[in-house]
Design brief:
The chain is α+β, with helices and mostly antiparallel strands and 372 residues long. The chain folds into 2 domains: 21-271, Bira Bifunctional Protein, Domain 2 (BirA Bifunctional Protein, domain 2); 279-371, Enolase-like, domain 1. The chain contains 13 helices and 15 strands. It has helices at 3-11, 32-45, 78-81, 84-89, 124-139, 182-188, 193-198, 220-234, 255-264, 267-271, 313-323, 332-339, 348-371; strands spanning 23-27, 60-64, 69-72, 93-96, 104-106, 110-117, 143-146, 150-153, 156-165, 170-177, 242-245, 279-285, 288-297, 300-308, 328-329. Strands 7-8-9-10-6-2-1-11 form an 8-stranded mixed sheet, sandwiched between helices. Strand 13 (288-297) and strand 14 (300-308) form a beta hairpin. The longest helix is centred in the last third of the chain and has 24 residues, at 348-371. The radius of gyration is 22 Å and the shape is globular. The termini are far apart.
């Protein structure tokens, strides 16, 4: 079977009736590498292959969960975000996802949700409110978004989220702490102290809560049904049909899925580059932590690495790429010129903040060196 025909069989939809407005998928697998590969296969294929008479792809709701794992954001320094020795010793899987944001621990007491839609229909706030409404009905408490990507109840976090926007589609995914082993959060995750200080807590576990604290009967199945009902109602359906996916599903034998799975399990991708011996400058902004590492040789920056938990992972990768276009002297004026007149849709305020901080810090170092 040719590649085009294969993708049509896996992902294309014939003309659908007015009653069908949402596609709901649940993974029956509990492997983080499989589920992230499946999620990104769905994202990359969304809207890409069409028979001329086929209707547009329906918005997707994908629900899944994983056995114990630590997941870091695409731009994070894995060596500083988790206790790798403990993770490896205990057989906990470790993975680097394709979206930004911070590191998380998951086990079967956690439920993951993913929204995939046309870019024109992408609405992070709306999706968050739908999840809050579904959860709130289950626990009898007011749930609401907080900060840049959290969902909270009584001031405690029960969900974190991230996103990715491609030309053809947008993805918004997040976690839901149902009955996660909270001791594992502090055992495996080692966030920067400034992040804990921002929330006025001494540990990761101190600022989160399990939803089972409000409803002891809550479960993965119950939460999935509640979310499906809430999102279906938004799209004008009583209750959407559910498609269950597993390793035998046709889409999981595609070359695209296999390539994503291989990348997610590749240690070079998981561990990233090590900034050993690099000069480091770090600051926490409202949009996340940014650490810029410089490999300086004879006053010239041979390489720049940027680590961040910023939710817009593609933006951070873009800035890093721009600073590696050509060797720069480790001087404020050089980096000011490298960053001037740059624009990034939806992130210009972050770019301006990073430039102001970086150039200002280098100027202070230069003045200090002159006076010493």
């Amino acid at each position: 079977m040719g590649a085009l025909a294969f993708f049509r069989r896996c992902f294309s939809r014939g003309p659908y009736t007015s009653e069908k407005r949402l596609r709901v998928l649940i993974s029956d697998e509990e492997d983080i590498y499989f589920n992230l590969a499946l999620e990104n296969t769905l994202l990359k294929s969304f809207g890409m292959v069409k028979d001329k008479d086929a209707a547009p792809d329906l918005p997707l709701l994908f629900l899944w969960r994983n056995t114990p794992c630590v997941i870091v954001g695409c731009n994070q320094n894995i060596w500083s975000e988790c206790n790798l020795e403990r993770v490896k010793r205990d057989g906990v899987k470790i993975v680097r996802r394709f979206t930004g944001g911070g590191a998380v621990y998951q086990d079967l007491g956690n439920t993951c949700f993913t929204f995939i839609s046309p870019v024109s229909d992408y609405n992070f706030e709306r999706n968050s409110n739908l999840i809050c409404a579904a959860v709130g009905k289950l626990i009898g408490q007011l749930c609401e978004p907080s900060g840049r990507n959290d969902l909270c109840v009584n001031g405690l976090k029960f969900s974190g989220a991230a996103f990715k926007v491609l030309p053809n589609a947008a993805l918004h995914h997040g976690t839901l702490l149902l009955d996660v082993n909270q001791g594992s959060l502090d055992k495996y995750l080692t966030p920067d102290k400034s992040k804990l200080e921002k929330h006025n807590v001494k540990s990761v576990g101190a600022r989160v809560t399990n939803l089972s604290a409000f409803n002891p009967d809550i479960s993965h199945e119950i939460v999935c049904n509640a979310i499906i009902e809430e999102v279906s109602a938004f799209y004008g359906e009583v209750m959407s049909d559910v498609e269950h996916l597993n390793a035998s599903s046709p889409c999981c034998s595609s070359d695209g899925f296999k390539q994503l799975y291989n990348k997610l399990t590749d240690e070079k991708w998981i561990y990233g580059e090590l900034a050993s011996g690099f000069k480091s400058l770090k600051k926490r902004f409202d949009f996340g932590s940014v650490e810029i590492c410089f490999d300086i040789r004879d006053g010239v920056v041979a390489k720049v690495l940027i680590f961040s938990d910023c939710m817009n992972g593609d933006f951070i990768a873009w800035v890093e790429n721009r600073l590696n276009q050509a060797p720069l002297k480790f001087r404020a004026a050089e980096f000011s010129r490298a960053l001037e007149r740059l624009e990034y849709d939806g992130a210009d305020f972050m770019l301006a903040a990073i430039k102001e901080w970086l150039v200002g810090t280098l100027l202070e170092e230069e003045k200090s060196a002159e006076n010493s």
